[in-house]
Amino acid sequence: MSSRTKSERKLAWLLCAPAVIVMLAVTAYPILYAFVLSLQKLDLRFPEQTEFIGLANYGTVLSAELWWLDVWNTVVIMVISVAIELVLGMLIALVMHRAIFGRGAVRTVVLIPYGIITVVAAFAWQFAFASETGFVDNLPLIADEKNWFGGHISSLAVIIMAEIWKTTPFMALLLLAGLVTIPDELYEAARVDGASAWQRFVKITLPLMKPAILVAVLFRTLEASRVFDSIFIMTRGAQNTESVSILGFNQLINRLNLGLGSAISVLIFVGVVLIAFVFIKGFGVKVEEGRPGG
Amino acid sequence: MKVGAREYSLWTIAIALVLIFALVPVLWLLSISLKPASEVADGRIIPSTFSLENYKSLFEGGWSASPFLHPLVNSIAIALITTVIAIVLASFTAYAIARLEFPGKRIILAGALAIAMFPPISTVGPLFDMWRAFGIYDTYLGLIIPYLTFSLPLAVYVLVAFFREIPWDLEQAAQVDGATPWQAFRKVILPLAAPGVFTAAILVFIFCWNDFVYAISLTSSDNSRTVPAALAFFTGESTFTEPTGSIAAAAIVVTIPIIVFVLIFQRRIVSGLTAGAVKG
Questions:
Q1: pLDDT of B140
Q2: Partner of A216 for a Cys bridge, out of A174, A206, B46, B139, CB 3.0 to 4.6 A?
Q3: How many independent structural domains does chain B possess?
Q4: Which CATH number characterizes residue B109's domain?
């Protein structure tokens, strides 16, 4: 190895080291620490009772009905919101790409939900649906005085709407990035051959956009699996709308039960790894073509 | 190609729907924030009387008593400090990845991506415990560290995508033409890199500005509580008044700058969010 290559490598590592250390300091180390905590009976309200109890906390969590209810809620929110976002995001991406006027305006306005604090978006939707302040009840076709936050399904529906509103723009922009890479000539050729707009979409756009779609869906699915802010603001888990993240937070921060809470943290981490694994191995998502979400 | 009237009206409808979709919740918040307390519950989309009392209540009592000023300053300070540090660290890393040959390049990129997928809630418990032991629970530093961790992958990816586009040969060309290395960097490379750096900075800022999980888990007082956390714990002026109006006003105050930002830097943000999304 020439000394020039050597010094180049050294410089590269020096430049990367600070960022790598900061990234590992708050992920690799804490998740290992969480694993250690999860093997203990550890309640900060009764620190003198701390003891090593092996995997007992995992047994407690996995045999609790609440855990499985929360897993179910999280999966429902994740699947429905990502599915609707994909369709809406694709429509908005097509408008941004193909509209014969007003593209700039649409691109700008669509960024507003992206820039808004999730907590603020959650309040906006909560106020719109709450029976005291809401205007939704006054809209035509809506049953008068419906108590949206009084039932399980309707509460979940409002939470999902807020999630969709906030994150569809990001999905649309990722899809737009894939859309612009498709050469126009393909569409022209198909048009000459007499393909309808729908055929062109199904036969050209969708197949060529598959990598972009999979990456967007993977990142949004992982993000949706963390759903926390909207639920915390709108229901705090009432009407059985708790997600696994809310459950973990309640155990860790409200009840100060670090042992049990850490077991939940580790299980959530394992769940995320599983989702990523299924996407990468199962659907062949080329993650190196992906990028972190914003 | 001539545009038919039918096509024109279809696009008008499509664009109008997108605009309504994006704007209605914001307008609704604005409407509530402008209603006097007696009319918050009237369900009208346009307030019958306009009042600024909700906005006044946010700042009432000045620095010592206002429920909103401390969180606002905390949010701005924490997001700005994090942005500056993240951009400096990410620029080093992105420069190395875009410009230098070294083993481990792919591992760093893959690792950054893995961290972007990492569930923050899984680190909340350990950090809560560690921060109290280190004495940085409920401090700026306690929030800045996790924000750095989770914004660095985003910043690195955006900057690598931008840096790869820079024609670095120009730097040598400038030096051949007699510029010093510093001049070459300042006059040639810096102007080319600035848009990417700026874009990454906007995205990091928005990320920190938005966080809620860490903000409620690692803070307990006005010392470091940021706006999203403060909003969640807002209380009315008395036990009998709902804080709806004040929350709406606070929400508008923190949203307006973002909207202005987005309006001015729309192009930058779009290119940043889509940079490297798919290899062209």
A1: 94
A2: A174
A3: 1
A4: 1.10.3720.10
